[in-house]
Design goal:
This protein is α/β, with parallel strands linked by helices. The chain is 41% helix and 14% strand. A six-stranded parallel β-sheet has the order 9-8-7-10-11-12, sandwiched between helices.
């Protein structure tokens, strides 16, 4: 696997949570291959993962293509994402695909165009060679069939679990003022935070000037989208009401979720959508997009809106504040929906698939 130690995000968190469950709930032996130079053994220990073995692979950027030839062999390989080896092709390998954002988002530069083209080439190779493709939602499965023409019988959907943030002891967060709406996620274009800010401005025009919008996630000040977001906040006179926390701890996330009035998650494209389940687990009502996997994941336990319609989003915010019966209904349904997802279930289904469809045993 690849692991950006200094910039860990969704894929890294997915890997750690899955490995942590496999570490505690299975008798099978797992090995993590990783490019030499990342002290992944320490990362595992720091996360309480003690039985998973780590093998560092040499040959630099070619560690997957060449280095894996010299690494100890295993019965089945699992690649998290479409970046699979070009030359190293074991008989039994499975690929987990999360989404195809690069096929839906218009590139802003020649560098992005080349990156998207390369990912597309590698994805086609991964699909063609894999014993099975694992998708994290039925939406991603449908996208895979439509975009790449893959055989539905070649694809298995296994839902991820999620971290029950609500069970973690709360830690204080400086600068956050109640009451507030919440957005969680890396600040980038497909998260559609610009529309969330516009909707928040419309909501405040209805006399709700005491409300704030808290945005949790990594902020890259050099990003054109982040610069545009800051300009919009300034233009709308919301500088004191839109609060950027940056990256925070799980204990601080527990605090943020428990004290918000609702989660705003109007993403344009999600293969899954962890914040939706995290919020529901904390008893927080959710307003989310009717696009991508989000309607599938929330399954009637959230308010769905057109993510590009700021007026519709603002109306949903107003309704969830003023209609207490609706709010309590969403809290109850949300908790019930979140209970249907767990990493234990994910690990069990993954192992069943691998042992059924490979030559193991």
């Amino acid at each position: 696997m690849s692991y950006a130690a200094n910039n860990s995000a969704g894929l890294e968190r997915f890997s750690l949570d899955l490995l942590g469950t496999l570490d505690h709930s299975t008798d099978a032996e797992y090995i993590v291959y990783i490019k030499k130079g990342v002290d992944f053994s320490k990362i595992l220990r720091d996360n309480g993962i003690l039985k998973i073995k780590v093998v560092e692979v040499g040959f630099g950027k070619l560690w997957k293509d060449i280095g894996l030839f010299f690494a100890p062999r295993v019965d089945a390989y699992i690649f998290n994402g479409p970046i699979v080896p070009f030359f190293f092709t074991p008989v039994n390998y499975f690929v987990i695909l999360h989404d195809f954002a690069y096929r839906h988002i218009k590139p802003n530069s020649w560098k992005e165009k080349f990156t998207f083209w390369l990912i597309d080439v590698l994805t086609r190779q991964a699909i063609r060679r894999a014993k099975k493709i694992i998708t994290v939602s039925e939406f991603t499965k449908k996208d895979l069939i439509e975009l790449y023409g893959d055989d539905p019988g070649h694809i298995v959907t296994i839902y991820p679990g999620f971290t029950p943030i609500g069970d973690i002891i709360e830690e204080s967060v400086a600068g956050v003022r109640k009451p507030y709406f919440l957005h969680v996620g890396t600040i980038k274009e497909r998260k559609n935070i610009l529309t969330a800010v516009k909707a928040f401005s419309l909501f405040r025009e209805g006399g709700k000037n005491d409300f704030n919008l808290v945005i949790v996630g990594k902020v890259n000040p050099e990003s054109p989208y982040v610069k545009k977001l800051f300009e919009l906040v300034e233009e709308l006179g919301l500088k004191d009401s839109v609060i950027f926390t940056g990256h925070i701890t799980d204990g601080q996330m527990s605090n943020i979720y428990h004290h918000a009035r609702a989660l705003l998650f109007p993403s344009l494209l999600e293969g899954f959508g962890f914040p939706v389940l995290e919020a529901m687990n904390c008893g927080l009502p959710v307003i989310t997009s009717d696009r991508g996997s989000l309607a599938e994941i929330s399954h009637g336990a959230a308010i769905l809106v057109d993510p590009l319609n700021a007026g519709e989003l603002a109306a949903a915010m107003k309704k969830i504040i003023e209609d207490q019966e609706l709010r309590m209904n969403l809290v109850v349904k949300g908790r019930g929906r979140a209970e249907q997802f767990s990493w234990t279930k994910t690990a069990r289904e993954l192992e069943q698939l691998i042992f059924r469809d490979s030559i193991i045993g």
